[in-house]
TrEMBL record:
Keywords: Oxidoreductase. The lineage of its organism: Bacteria, Bacillati, Actinomycetota, Actinomycetes, Micrococcales. It comes from Brevibacterium aurantiacum. Residues 3-128 form the Ketopantoate reductase N-terminal domain. The keyword Repeat does not apply. GO terms for molecular function: 2-dehydropantoate 2-reductase activity. The keyword Oxidoreductase applies. This is Ketopantoate reductase. It comes from the Bacteria.
Length: 315
């Protein structure tokens, strides 16, 4: 398959690398003038959590192909969009006259209504997913990792198309396992709230390490997530299992479980540590999550006193 990764960010590079290793042709679209900045290769220093690799370290110099233009008559089969949620509008604006016959995989957080966010694209060509990886760049070296599973979901019938099935087969052939999500709109919104709670804790404590070492801080993260769930339902989402757990399991119990997970010797902890050490999760990236949830809470008239009390940390 001929694949265009939209941008040369962390997720685009991780999954572009994995998909090319699986036998696909992968290029990266970058803004005009950026190809010279990025260079023609990436130093990969990651852990590969796919089925046959089981988290093994990978260190190599990977040659990549960058392009600064995209004509409407291109021959890409798939364009993978993985951008910060606040950059999705501009990505859609750029792609709208250039989609051609390609399938578009939206592969990132979304806090707007997903259908509205991509309404300028042909809906029948859009599929939805979410990665299981991360990290950050140290100059031209990518530090981080990918876990075995990715998420693919349904937005208004999008999973019942041949394009969705082709994307599913692409990732399966690349040794990823697939978690299928029936109500992806609600799943995305709950994941966004989860990230917002973690980012508040990270900002308050000053670092990811300090957050995960503090059980009281993790307990506060759980309470923040619990408080934000009504914002999700006010937006039209459905409270999922994770939301129910956050509501009814004591915050101290969930905080204890989070601490065990986030301080353990596992790939997820490694990925988060690399994101911290490379400065990938900078102040703006962290603050955008709680700021956007708070803005919608105020717009919808949902009381979030804990989040408001923490506003100085992300204002």
């Amino acid at each position: 398959m001929k694949i265009l990764m939209f941008g040369r960010g962390v997720i685009s590079t991780l999954y572009g690398w994995a998909l090319e290793k699986a036998g696909n042709e992968v290029d990266f679209y970058v803004r005009p003038g950026r190809a010279a900045d990025f260079g023609s290769s990436v130093d990969v220093d990651i852990r590969d959590g796919r089925a046959s690799s089981k988290g093994k370290p990978v260190q190599e110099n990977w040659p990549i192909t960058l392009r600064e233009d995209l004509e409407p008559d291109h021959d890409y089969d798939l364009i993978i969009v993985s951008v910060n949620h606040d950059q999705l509008d501009s990505a859609v604006d750029f792609l709208q006259p250039r989609v051609g016959g390609a399938t578009i995989l939206i592969f990132n957080n979304v806090w707007a209504d997903p259908a509205a966010a991509i309404s300028r694209l042909p809906r029948e060509q859009v599929t939805w997913g979410f990665p299981g990886g991360g990290g950050g760049f140290d100059v031209s070296t990518l530090h981080g990792g990918i876990v075995r599973s990715i998420f693919l979901g349904d937005i208004d019938g999008s999973s019942r198309t041949d394009r969705h099935r082709v994307v599913r087969e692409l990732f399966t052939d690349a040794e990823f396992s697939i978690s299928d999500i029936a109500d992806f709109r609600s799943w995305l919104w709950f994941h966004f709230i989860l990230d917002a709670g973690i980012m508040v804790g990270w900002l308050r404590m000053g670092s990811f390490d300090a957050l995960v070492r503090s059980r009281p801080a993790l307990k506060e993260v759980v309470r923040l997530i619990r408080e934000m769930i009504p914002v999700l339902t006010a937006k039209g989402g459905t409270s999922r299992f994770g939301a129910a757990a956050a509501r009814f399991i004591p915050a101290s119990v969930i905080g204890f479980a989070m601490q065990k997970l986030l301080t353990g010797d596992n790939l997820f902890t490694f990925i988060m540590t690399q994101a911290q050490n490379t400065g990938h999760n900078n102040y703006k990236a962290q603050a955008d999550y709680p700021r956007d949830v708070l803005a919608d809470a105020r717009r919808l008239g949902v009381a979030v006193p804990r989040l408001e009390a923490n506003e100085p940390a992300f204002r």
